[in-house]
Amino acid sequence: MFIIKHKKIFISISIVLVLLSIASLFIFGLRIGIDFNGGALTEVAYKNSRPIQSDLDTAFKSLDLGSVLIQPTGELGYIVKSLDLNEAQHILLLKTLSQDGKSPLEEKNFNSIGPSVGRELTRKAIIAIVLVSLGIILFIAFAFRKVSKPVSSWKYGLMAVVSLLHDVMIPIGLFTLLSHFYGAEADTLFVVAALTILGLSVSDTIVIFDRIRENLKNKTGASFSETVGKSLDQSYMRSIFTSLTVIIVLLSLFFFGPESTKYFALMLTAGMFFGTYSSIFLASPLLVLVEEWQKK
Predict the structure, then answer these.
(1) What is the pairing mode between strands 105-113 and 77-82?
(2) Which of 142, 151, 200, 223 lies 20 to 30 angstroms, CA to CA, from 178?
(3) Residue ranges per domain, the chain?
(4) Are both 2-34+116-295 and 39-113 of the same fold?
(5) What pTM, to 2 d.p., does this model score?
(6) CATH code at 2-34+116-295
């Protein structure tokens, strides 16, 4: 009952975090990757030792190749993201990476993505997120159709989606900071992370809502708020331990996995943490708040 008793404090914390994330998004913005903007991706592996990244960054600044982002991969490689390159620019890029032949390298991969492909990916990503949100509302409304008192079944779905927006918005806000200070780019892995957060977070919320549904049927608690409080007491430890096991795996991926998936793992870790928070401290308290407003 502690959570329900202090529900306004926990809801206020969530509101502040979401507002800070939105402010960060407007102030810093997201660095959009070539998956959406179009451009070229080059992967190279050095035969001996890999040059220092700062030296390559300095070398590229003096060239007319636009924005060039260099990311280490493996022990001897770099992934280079740039604007779309013609043949002459491609050769110049490889020459610069090899430091005029002083650091022999092998080109492992070169892909060019047109802006039309990027626009199509953006459209599909937005559609996917909207459809997932609608599907969640419909599924929960159907699953909770027999629990219409004192809160309508569709409101369970609506509160779940509000929690999911919280779970996605805060990691996006954190990603804007990574984008601004460390050059992280929003690419297809960014969209995959957002969709994965939606799926993982809603499962925790549904488990707690299902406990509320069972306790309502069994008439556990003298009031709705007491029933929700007891349901949280019965299920919050399960949610925390389940999330912790996933977070441990994600942190292992962040610290020991390839460079290309580090930001992906970090975003998922933040999503799991705040998803667990919202399942316990936001979604259920919001239901109680809705029930209290209905009485007025």
Answers:
(1) unpaired
(2) 200
(3) 2-34+116-295, 39-113
(4) no
(5) 0.78
(6) 1.20.1640.10
